[in-house]
Every structure is written in C-alpha cells, then in structure tokens.
Amino acid sequence: xxxxxxxxxxxxxxxxxxxxDGLCSPAELVAMARNVGLRAIALCDHDSVAxxxxxxxxxxxxxxxxxPGIELSSMWNSFQDIxxxxxxxNHHAEQLREELTLFREFRRExxxxxxxxxxxxxxxxxxxxLDFHEIQENTGDTVGRPHLARALVAKGYARSMExxxxxxxIPCNIPKxxxxxxxxxRLVHESGGIAVMAHPLLATSDRDHWDRLLNEYTALGLDGIxxxxxxxxxxxxxxxLQQAKRRGLVVTGGSDFHGxxxxxxxxxxxxxxxxVPGSCLDGIKTALGTKQGxxxxx
Length: 298
Fold this sequence. Notes:
Blueprint: E1 11-15, H1 26-35, E2 40-43, H2 52-59, E3 65-76, E4 79-87, H3 94-124, H4 132-136, H5 145-154, H6 161-169, E5 179-180, H7 181-190, E6 194-197, H8 207-219, E7 224-228, H9 234-247, E8 250-253, H10 279-296
Helix pairs in contact: 1-2, 5-6
C-alpha cells in the first residue's frame, strides 16, 4: 500500500529536463517541485548530466534537495531498450563525461537524420521545413524527439504532441544507441553512484520474467529497482517490493515527468497522480553510504 503520511509523499526521484527530452529547464523543475510541496527530487535526464548543476543551484535556499541522477539507455540480450537509473553519481567524473559525450554526438546525428526524414515528408506535403538550429536554441543540452514534436505543433503541422509522434516521429524514427547493461552498471558504479532499474513494467509485465531477470541483473551489480511508477498498480508495487526484499535491493520511485501537457504537477502528489514514500530516498542514501564505506576501507 502507498503511504498516507504527508511527509512521506513529498519526493520524486525521476524527472527529465530540457537537457534531454523534457520540456522544462532544470531550474523550472525545482520551482515546480517547490510549488507542489516536494522536499526532494532527482534529475535523471537521458544520457546527460548537463542540467544537474543548474538544478542544484536553483534549489539553494528553497528547501528542495536535489539528488544527482541519470537515466542510461541500455540493452541486454533480447531486451533492446531497458533504462538504468544512476543515483548519487559524481556528475563531473571524467570517464562518465567522456562516455556521455560520445552518446551525445551519436544522438545529435540521429536527431538530425530524423529531422531530415521529417522535412522530406513535409516537402512531399508541400509544407515548410523545420530548422534544426532554431529548434536547438530552445533546448538545453541536446535536441530530443519531444523537441521536434513541439516544433511540429508550433508550426501547425500537428494538432498535439501525440499527433506529432504518430504522424511524423514514429514513421521517421532511426534506432537509438544503447549501453550494454553490464557496462551501464559499471559506469554508474565507477562514477560513485548506485544503479537502479527504471520503470520495469515498460520492459516487460511478465512477472516470471522479472523473477529470472532480477537474479541475472543483480549478478551484474544492479543495486535497486524503481517500484513506484505511474504505470504500476498496487499489486505491481507489492510484487517489486517483495522482489527487492528477497535480493536486498534498494527501492525507488518517480513520475518520469517530461513536462508534456498531460503531465500536471499536483499539490500533495507532486509530479503525477501517485506518491513516492520518503523511505526511498533514505534507502538511496544508505546504499551510497555503504558503497562509500567499502571504497574507503583498506
């Protein structure tokens, strides 16, 4: 069951900003979090840490704790798009920065090619084209598909974000690049963080699969699982809580907020219609402290 205590409700450990594919800046997310009564958030942009310093600076003096985070696009065997959250990372770590730079370069080229395909379709429809540099001026670290969708809506070429994806982004898509899961986990660990499986139900809803997969992923070094998500029912949450308890995994939760029109922060429940217990943040801090203690021991 979800907690009823108000203090327990006031965190959200999975938010996205304009530094990946979100539509709000890191500072705007902090302001929104303050306005809806959150006490802690984690900025987990896709394959980017560019917004963390801005979020931390914006949080100073406003009672919001910002946990440095990231969401890495990963793959393992037949699962080609599983997401790994890294919490408590040193976002200035050189190796992490180098790996993300390579990822960013690939993504930039991928999104340029997607835009080329979209523009070809627009030309066939006898419409004006979109300018990549103009779109980039309104983003943070990297142009993402939601930014392309928003530009299509602004030009009147799509009725909504969903319409833009259905009409242009999905047909014009180009496959993403993924970190092998073991490499992603290792990168998070080497950056001083803990590795958590994001929104597991989006990978598969088969519980028998997750019983097996969590054994496999824990052997790779996985530290936790995101049990509290908008897509999870009370039964799903209980299942993942039990799975985590059996394996000594950290439990986290978050809204996966991107700033889309259908996502409206609500006072009392934060960035979504569900709540995340404050114990999740405590669990992260405990795991990080244990990890640091092991690293310092002779």
